[in-house]
Amino acid sequence: MAYSPLNGGLFPKRLLHPAFPVVIFIVFFGLAAGFRYGLIGQYTGQIQSNLENETRSMANTLEREFMVHADAIRRMASRLAKDPQKPESEWREDARNYLNDFRIYQAIEWIDRDFIIRWLEPLASNEGVVGFNSAFNQQRRSALEAAIRTGNYDISGVIELRQGGKGIVIYAPVGTGPNNNGFVAGVFKMETLARQLMATREPGMFRIEIRSRGATVYTLSDFERSDATASYTVPIKLPTLNWQLNLEPSPEWFEKQTSPWPRWTFITLLFMGLLTSLATLFLQLILKRNEALLTARRKLDEEIAQRETIQQDLVRLESTDTLTGLANRRFFMEDLAHTLNIANRQSYQVALVMLDLDRFQMLNDSLGHQFGDALLVQVAGCLNQLSNERVTVAYSGGDEFMICLQHVEDIDDVLHLLGRIKQCFETPFNVQGEAHKITATLGVAVYPQSGLDADTLLRNADIALYRAKEQGRNTYQFYTEGMQEREVMRLELEKDLSQALVKNEFVLHYQPQLNLDSGEINSVEALIRWQHPRRGLLAPGEFIPLAEESGRITEIGHWVVMAACQQLAAWRGTRFEHLRVAVNLSGRELDDDSLVERVRNTLAAEGVPADRLEVELTEEIFIQNIEHNLGQLRRLHDLGVHLAIDDFGVGYSSLAYLRNFPVDLLKIDRSFITEVTERHDDAVITRAVINLAHNLGLQVVAEGVETRAQLDLLRSQGCNMAQGYLISRPVPAVELEKALSNGAFEQV
């Protein structure tokens, strides 16, 4: 059959349809309307920005002028305090000078110690104010008495003035305490203050509202309230006042801010659409007369396309990972970019899943790279079964895989894929003749919500994967707005962490442990804090996970032991030298063969007996690498250091390590103590742990004690020590010493 370019050639028949120029004109009309709408939105944003700038400028002016007037009143009060016998005539002359200089005061007053207005300038039109009691209610009396005690001036807020109208009074005490000789007060009307804000602006352009705690206390406007909803509010930073300034522009101001560009842009694009439509009509005539030429071009294009397809097939063969047989990262990213282009044109979603094998690096390091490669091949084979016309699976490298769901109708499609991925890890993998249970953590990013290009989508999926790891692994996490900001903050914190030890930014706080038999404090737990130069005091939960990931936890652990020993040395020869300090030890520190020698050298350098130091480890750390840890702990115990199991009851169920490890003390996890007085099972578990520890010759510390009822129950069950907020929060060493000296814990 003869080929015709009008029947599906380079220019399909529908493009040569007479209605096509009309479609073009409609498209240009839509573009014109869109640009007009966008420009209007842009100018609207600019108008709002100008309004914000006007409001902030007025607020800054009000703050500055107000403080100038307040300081002027304070200086006048200071002069009267230095010369209490100043005659009334001199005081009035001084007041008149202030009135002439500032021209904003309604009046300046002297108020005696009984809060009665005695002197007033000017006296004309203000005669009724003389003899008025400024402490006209209990609230005003309390505020003025507080000003006398502190010496700070007091501001009345907006009140009804005795002279009439609304205004503000600034009270500056003449001397403090017993030496007080009343107040010098400056009175000015709100209208005068508001007019001063408008002095440099066009009249009638703004409506000013001054609010206190959300309620409008004064309004200045030269126009009626308009229907426009545009307004802006900023706080006014004034002593003792909680004010906000709200600015609403007039219609005339709005009119001056508008621009003709949206209208002219709309007209221009509409004219361009008309020209383009006419040009298309002429082009259609030319195309129909050159049908034969287009047919030849089409055949040439088909041949070129066939060659490109062959080349793409060759590239695909070169784009396969040699180990797993899956697509490699380069091919996957190119395919993902192509998929996103199609999704953009057809307006559907695409999901990218980043998969990370949990604890793969530990298995690879301990069992060898051959084991790791064999495991990756089996995981790849299982994941490859998910591949179809909509799902692409690739190997990213290391222990990471990438999975793309190319056409997402709704979120259920993604959840279904995640469920199928999880099923791949339900059955243990048989590697080198042994079964190994492997889990995976997943991060999901969905186009277009989580990124508009392949690189952004991959980065956000990786961020979501990191968040899922933080939640405990073997789970999944979708990328959400704000994750990237938190990731940047985490990276900044990790960078600062590398300099924290060098800059000596870490500090120790101490939480006392109450001996329930004697009621004394014989031991404390040292808890690290980071005094960050910009973010303030950070708790361990905000930086210890970063330290563990980066490997700096060992250095931090060394510092904690050294700082604790230095504090013990500082207490030597004082009433606190009997205290024992407990420090937490991480698994990485326990893996360090030089740990015992380092602790021994630190104790010797500071001259601290080994039994003054206690080391706490969680149950999980005890169980990991049992033979190595047992040797380390025995050497620490032989050194004389006390050993404690922290968070007992939430780790491994086997209790054999209690018999084999040289443990001195158990710490019951706070999860059992929180509801020990309400839940019978928690009480039974707590009693059983106490009895078990005592039968093994171990002491018991209950963590998280926050109520008297919890403390009484633990004491009745024979618990040796208690630790928690009821007794004390973690505090610096100075505060701990002060509390011990004052007997603060004798009432517990």
Describe this structure in words.
It is built from 24 helices and 26 strands. By secondary structure, the chain is α+β, with helices and mostly antiparallel strands. The chain has three domains: 205 residues, Beta-Lactamase (2-Layer Sandwich); 163 residues, Reverse transcriptase/Diguanylate cyclase domain (Alpha-Beta Plaits, 2-Layer Sandwich), CATH 3.30.70; 250 residues, EAL domain (TIM Barrel), CATH 3.20.20. Strands 18-19-21-22-23-24-25-26 form an eight-stranded mixed barrel, surrounded by four helices. Strands 1, 2, 3, 4, 5 and 6 form a six-stranded antiparallel beta sheet that branches. Strand 7 and strand 8 form a beta hairpin. Helix 1 packs antiparallel against helix 2, helix 9 packs across helix 10 and helix 17 runs parallel beside helix 19. The longest helix is centred in the first third of the chain and has 63 residues.
- CA-atom Rg in angstroms: 39 Å
The overall average pLDDT, rounded, is 82
Total domains, how many? Answer: 3
Report the oligomer. single chain
Write the topology of this structure.
Layout: H1 20-82, H2 88-102, E1 107-111, E2 117-121, H3 138-150, E3 154-155, E4 159-160, E5 166-173, E6 183-189, H4 190-197, E7 206-212, E8 215-221, E9 232-238, E10 241-249, H5 251-257, H6 261-289, H7 291-318, H8 329-346, E11 349-357, H9 360-367, H10 369-384, E12 391-397, E13 400-408, H11 411-423, E14 429-431, E15 434-436, E16 440-447, H12 454-470, E17 476-478, H13 483-500, E18 506-515, E19 521-532, E20 536-538, H14 544-550, H15 553-571, E21 580-584, H16 587-591, H17 595-606, E22 613-618, H18 619-623, H19 626-639, E23 642-648, H20 656-660, E24 665-668, H21 670-673, H22 680-695, E25 699-703, H23 708-716, E26 721-723, H24 733-741
Parallel strand pairs: 16-17, 19-21, 21-22, 22-23, 23-24, 24-25, 25-26
Antiparallel strand pairs: 1-2, 1-6, 3-5, 4-5, 5-6, 7-8, 7-10, 9-10, 11-13, 11-16, 12-13, 14-15, 18-19, 18-26, 19-20
Helix pairs in contact: 1-2, 1-6, 9-10, 15-17, 17-19
